[in-house]
Amino acid sequence: MAFEYDVKNESGYDILYLKGNLMEKHEAQAMLEAINEMIEQGHNKFLLHLKDLKYMNSSGIGILISILTKARNAGGEVAVTGLSPKMNQLLVITKLNSVFKITESIKEAAHLLIKI
Can you give the pLDDT at residue 83? Predict the structure, then answer.
């Protein structure tokens, strides 16, 4: 399943819905460029909704870290929600669960991002 993403702009943050398999940086290049444009426009808080992300390898993890780095360098933050048990386990094994702000719902993530 190819990687796809959608962006929904909310008041104070942007939701990125990630779908499919995140395995190669070139597959996510359009998303990373869109994030760069959003940051240039003053957006720096992103909610990554991973409910429909089926698989992610080390390149995919690198892409998530890149998004987090871009947001934090711009004075913002990234929250992650919609983790399947498999994706949650991957973040725990890589200890990225202590790096990303992981939430149980979009509502909880939105509340967290708005407070920052």
Answer: 95
